[in-house]
Amino acid sequence: MIVKDLMSTNVVSIDSEATVKDAASKMAQQEIGSLVVIDQNKPVGIVTERDLLSRVLALGRNAEATQVKMVMSKPLICGRPDMDVTEATRFMVAKGIKKLPVTQEGRLIGILTLTDLCAAQPDIYELIEKETKGRLPKRFMKRLAKRYYRT
Question: Which end of the chain is more exposed for a tag (fewer CB within 10 A), N or C?
Answer without folding.
Answer: C
